[in-house]
């Protein structure tokens, strides 16, 4: 039986705005998260770089509310208003929140009407604090948003014991479900191809006996790769 799913999302990379980006969204949402069933109807309400309403597939509609990483806390108020409107109009069977803090924008007593599923896949406040400076203040606001979000979530997916501990410290007392996501092609990285490639790269870039950072993160500002580079100087 077809279900209506409201998804609260965040997209600073413009994944919904072009074919290549949308394929990345499909990779994470459909395959890694396992959050998609073609028999369901999805309405995705997302913070993003521009205001837009898109019908990307027959059963997937996307509404983008313009914001940015430096404005998201301010824009959360208008996002919250739009969330309430969409909930009333769309009347979802389930609400899925893969960016947990966004669950804080759901209406009061949402659980009495709808089932809310959140995904805790990182601790956003800790990521922000790592950047240092005045941004550390924003980190404490995100702790509070996570706390409010967990009050509105019925089922919380998590992908590491550390994240489970974080949820429990925040007072989460409902259903916790371990949902690990692989981040690498295990078959490829365990093959002889990788050993050959490693030797080739060490020689080509003269890296032997030098410090090397291995990261599987996207090369985007929020991943804070520059901190790792600075750390190598010490």
Tell me what you see in this structure.
The chain has eight helices and eight strands; from the N terminus they run βαβββαββααβαβααα. It has helices spanning 19-32, 72-90, 124-129, 135-151, 161-169, 186-189, 192-204, 225-231, and strands at 4-10, 41-48, 52-57, 60-66, 94-97, 115-120, 155-158, 175-178. Strands 3-4-2-1-5-6-7-8 form an eight-stranded mixed β-sheet, covered by helices on one side. The protein is globular. The N and C termini lie far apart (58 Å).
Number of separate structural domains: 2
- Tally of individual helices: 8
User: What topology, given as strand order, has the largest sheet?
Assistant: 3-4-2-1-5-6-7-8
**What fraction of residues sit in β-strands?**
15-25%
- CATH third-tier fold name of the largest domain: Rossmann fold
Using the alpha-carbon principal axes, give the shape: globular
Helix content: 25-40%
Poorly predicted spans? none
Order of helices and strands: EHEEEHEEHHEHEHHH
On the 0 to 100 scale, the average pLDDT is 88
Describe the sheet with the most strands: 8 strands, mixed
- Give the CATH architecture of the largest domain: 3-Layer(aba) Sandwich
Estimated structural class: alpha/beta
Taking the alpha carbons of the first and last residues, their distance comes to 58 Å
